[in-house]
Design a protein that fits this description.
The protein contains 2 helices and 24 strands. By secondary structure, the protein is an all-beta fold. The chain folds into 2 domains: about 260 residues, no CATH class; about 220 residues. Strands 1, 2, 5, 6, 7 and 10 form a 6-stranded mixed sheet that branches. Strands 15-14-24-17-22-20 form a 6-stranded mixed sheet, with no helix packed on it.
Length: about 500
């Protein structure tokens, strides 16, 4: 029988969100040595949860070059770009020790023999005749393997593109850290191996003294040439260890002298964080050249959708939404505000709760014209350029008027708490958006800076998340001077559970 301490070292698993990642130097079974203490309050935030073969915005444009007319939509590290993604690991240590190495191993399971995540075809084993696809070949076919492309360098000053940094309680470490990548998968795995870089080592000759309970944050900031490619689909896990040696990261699992504990260099670890790939919400609207629109609104709340016990939110028409007057090709009007809706749902067995973010640009056309972001929370004001969003508790919308099973929770947004700038969208999306003069009007916010730094919209830091469901209400207004054209955006929703 395992001791309670042994059980605490085992990895955890998680279910993630709609929209809108090892333990040893060599992959193997989870370790249970006396020296191995768990890292706690673990989470992983991706700059994009889009699949690794995706790098386009709502108009299908990918990043070309800085300051080019009509590009700018999906640079490395932005919400739509899963091909060139970044990551942030956050956790607290259990032991007070000088840490000289961190290892991160990406696998499809939280424990056992390791297979790197991805869905390309072929097998990277040397003795098999079916070579694994590289990502360049697989991406046009809608497939990708997780891979670290290029070598991240340690930030010399403020963190910049193509660099990584290690923070202790929010302060950047003063030591120099070296980055190394390699493939570490187990030939004993029964499924195909990817052969891609799934094992990261960060080392420092002097190391950093980290005390029990201090928070560590490891941030990989991507560039157009140095980045992390997400796997194509499914969930994945990252096994984390800390070590007191920068040259021999010896773990109880791969210890050449298992009867002698004096050479074991692992400090804390044997635990995982998890994440999953999701797709984006696409929104399209149009500004007609005549600007002669008839008044009309569309309220999806009047159409109830039957569902089972916490089924995933349905993907319809590839998550594409039209916003505007349905009688005028879904175009916007100067004197009328228009809204549209999407949903997301989150379940996670993370006892430390979770945070939900959004990431995306404001509505823009292909020549660089934009409908102004809402910015800080405010009411809808027709005749003024605005694009914003707000969250609505979706419990009543998704129940189809039936009696929900007593053995499960009602699918509302609890226990997540909506951010204060996004909590006044109306009880069921029914608050007024046609005038800004009424005190009880719906209010919205939106920051296009979220395209680079995801914006928090809902959070809980202490509870397991059971079927938290939110309805997102989007609003758009134009001014007489808004240039004509087809305007699109692509909003990505990210979830980061804390284990």
């Amino acid at each position: 029988m395992y001791t309670l301490k042994s059980i605490a070292r085992r990895g955890t698993a998680f279910m993630a969100v709609f929209a809108l990642l090892a333990a040893t130097l060599l992959p193997s079974l989870p370790a249970f040595a006396d020296e191995l203490n768990p890292l706690t309050e673990r989470s992983l935030l991706l700059t994009s949860s889009a699949p690794g073969f995706t790098d386009t915005d709502g108009s299908g444009n990918s990043f070309a070059a800085p300051n080019s007319v009509g590009e700018n939509y999906a640079p490395a590290g932005s919400g739509p770009n899963g091909k060139k993604s970044g990551q942030t690991f956050t956790f607290k240590v259990s032991s007070t020790a000088t840490v000289k190495a961190f290892t991160l191993q990406y696998c499809t399971t939280a424990a056992g023999v390791c297979q790197a995540p991805g869905d390309n075809t072929g097998d990277a084993r040397d003795d098999l005749p079916s070579p694994r696809e590289d990502n360049a070949t697989a991406h046009p076919l809608g497939r990708s393997d997780l891979d670290f492309v290029g070598d991240f360098t340690h930030a010399a000053a403020a963190l910049a593109d193509g660099e990584f940094e290690v923070y202790i309680d929010g302060a950047a470490t003063t030591e120099d850290w070296a980055f190394a990548k390699e493939n570490e998968e187990d030939n004993a795995h029964s499924d195909e191996l990817t052969g891609k870089n799934n094992y990261i080592t960060l080392t420092s000759a002097t190391g950093e003294l980290i005390s029990n309970g201090q928070e560590v944050q490891i941030v990989f900031e991507p560039s157009e040439t140095i980045y992390i490619t997400n796997p194509g689909s499914g969930s994945f896990f990252v096994k984390i260890n800390t070590y007191d040696s920068d040259t021999d990261q010896i773990n109880p699992i791969n210890d050449p002298t298992p009867l002698d504990d004096t050479d074991q260099t692992v400090i804390d670890g044997g635990v995982t964080v998890a994440n999953v790939m999701t797709d984006s919400i696409h929104i399209t609207t149009k500004v007609l050249e005549t600007m002669s629109f008839s008044v009309g609104t569309q309220n999806p709340d009047t159409t109830a959708v039957a569902h089972g016990i916490c089924d995933p939110i349905d993907v319809i028409n590839n998550n594409r939404l039209n916003m505007g007057n349905p009688n005028a090709e879904y175009s916007l009007e100067i004197d009328e505000a228009y809204d549209t809706f999407s949903y997301w749902r989150l379940s996670s067995n993370s006892s430390g709760g979770a945070t939900v973010y959004y990431s995306g640009n404001t509505l823009a056309n292909t020549v660089g014209d934009e409908i102004a972001e809402m910015g800080a929370e405010k009411s809808s004001q027709p005749g003024t350029e605005q694009f914003g969003l707000a969250l609505i508790d979706a419990g009543l919308d998704t129940m189809d008027g039936g009696t929900f099973p007593t053995q499960w929770v009602t699918p509302d947004i609890a226990p997540l708490v909506i951010g204060t700038e996004y909590d006044e969208g109306g009880f069921q999306g029914d608050a007024d958006i046609s005038s800004s003069t009424t005190a009880d009007n719906a209010k919205f916010a939106f920051y296009k800076s979220s395209n680079e730094v995801p914006e928090v919209i809902a959070q809980n830091t202490s509870d397991v998340i059971d079927c938290a469901t939110s309805k997102v209400r989007y609003v758009a207004n134009i001014a007489p001077s808004t240039p004509a054209g087809v305007y699109t955006t692509k909003i990505n929703y990210l979830a980061a559970p804390q284990y």
